[in-house]
Amino acid sequence: MSAPLGRRAVAEAVGSAALVAVVVGSGIQATELTRDVGVQLLANSLATVFGLGVLIALLGPVSGAHFNPVVTLAAWFTGRRSEDGLTARDVAAYIPAQLAGSIAGALVADAMFGKPLAQWSTHDRFAGHLWLGEVVATAGLVLLIFGLARTDRDHFGPVAVASYIGAAYWFTSSTSFANPAVTIGRAFTDTFAGIAPGSLGPFIAAQLVGAALGLGLVVAVFGRPAPARTASALVQGESELAAPTLP
């Protein structure tokens, strides 16, 4: 990747902050406009689709627009044998930036709507069917991202990833967090999109399981690439990241 690591980390922080601000802010706005939970979820999901698509298109050429620790870890794992893949140093910069950005985004959203800052969420999401929803949502996300890279259709990333997340809002029981950084950020807001701190551990564990399952599905669906194969690929918008090479 051509951009210096510092700039890439800033892009990850800014993108994560903006994403969480969109998710939390649209949730607050929706609950203030209507009491219909279905309409609230529709407004929240539509805002997330549009916001995520724009952020991937804008920041993808800089950092890859991961905004998600499981995507970063999966990109590192699949590209660890490639000279052009993410390094451990990249991961060490990306993930803290994503976490800090996500928390900042929740605080900014609360501030914009006059809500108390850094108030822990009381929205309990501690249930087995919700954890299964997170496994499914995250597995599908990883399969999509790395499947696009494997088939040289990375240019569809902004539309495809945003569309998938929008759909997963509705077809998963958990409304598709599918992102440990965003999950942690949403614990800092006691609003529609929040998640109680006590629910974080199982959600994040389910997301990690889903990421591993998603990588397994990439191999099952697309097979193992030839060892010598290298190609320009995109992980959620990255134009200079080598195509994932699954072990």
How much helix, percentage-wise, in residues? 55-70%
Give the class from helix and strand content and strand pairing.
Answer: mainly alpha
Give the strand order of the largest sheet, numbering strands 1, 2, ... along the chain.
1-2
**Beta-strand share of residues:** under 5%
Oligomeric status of the shown chains? single chain
Rounded to the nearest angstrom, the distance between the terminal CA atoms is 22 Å
What does this molecule look like?
It is a single chain. The protein has a two-stranded antiparallel sheet with strand order 1-2. 65% of the residues lie in helices and 2% in strands. The chain has 247 residues and is an all-alpha fold. The chain is built from 8 helices and 2 strands; from the N terminus they run ααααααααββ. The two termini are 22 Å apart. The protein has helices spanning 5-33, 37-63, 69-79, 88-112, 128-150, 157-171, 180-186, 200-222; strands spanning 232-233, 241-242. Strand 1 (232-233) and strand 2 form a beta hairpin. The chain is globular.
